[in-house]
Amino acid sequence: MFFSAYEGMKPRLAAFNGGKEHCLHPAFSASCGEVAACLVRVPTQVVTQRMQVGQYATFWEAVPKIFAESGISTFFIGYWTTVAREIPFSFIQFPLYEGLKRMLAFTQGHETTPTQGALCGSFSGAIAGVATCPLDVVKTRMMLGRKTKEGELYSGLGTLRGLRTIVAEDGAGALFAGVVPRFGWITIGGFVFFGAYEKAQDLLWKSGAWGAKPKFML
C-alpha cells in the first residue's frame, strides 16, 4: 500500500510541475503512502503492543476484547497520531534517501546499486527515527490506552497534548524513551526495507514489466 501510493504520486506531482521533479516530491509522495499504509499498520500495532505489555495472552483473546471496548474504532486508536509521526518521518527520510542516491550516483558516474540504495535508506531512516522519537512515544502510550505509572486511561489525547502531558509527568527525557533500540531497529530494518525495494525495482526494470528504464543522467 505504501509503495503503490508513493510510486503513483511521484509522476502525478511531476506532471503538476510541468514534468519537472522537485526535491519535495518524494516527501509528499511518501506522506500519501504513509496515510494509506497506516490503515493496516495501526490496527496491527494496537494488537501487537497490547500483547507485548501483557494485556492479552493470545491474538485470539486480544482481537475480540479490543473490539468489545468501542467497536472497530478501537483498532484505530492513535491513527492520526501515527500519521502525525509518520509524515514528519517521511518528510525527513525520503528526500534524504533520494538526495543521497543522487549524490552517490553523481560521484561515481553511474546509478546506485540495490545495496547502495539500501545503505542510503538505512542511514536516512536512522536520522528520521531519532528525530521523530517523541511522536512515537506519544503514539505508543495512546495505543496502550494506559499511562505507564497510574494505570489511568491515556487514550483520547491529541499529539500536542500528549507531548505536553508526558513532559509534565515524566520530564522531557521521557520523550526519547527507547531511542537507542528505535535507532537500531530502524537502521537494520531500513536496510532490509530499502534493499528489497531497490532489488524489486531492479528486477522489474530488467524484466520489462515497467517498460523501458529511464537512462541515468549525470
From TrEMBL:
Solcar repeats lie at residues 21-103, 116-203. Keywords: Membrane, Repeat, Transmembrane, Transmembrane helix, Transport. InterPro entries: MCP_dom_sf, MCP_transmembrane. GO terms for cellular component: membrane. It is found in: Membrane. It comes from the Eukaryota. It is a multi-pass membrane protein. Belongs to the mitochondrial carrier (TC 2.A.29) family. This is S-adenosylmethionine mitochondrial carrier.
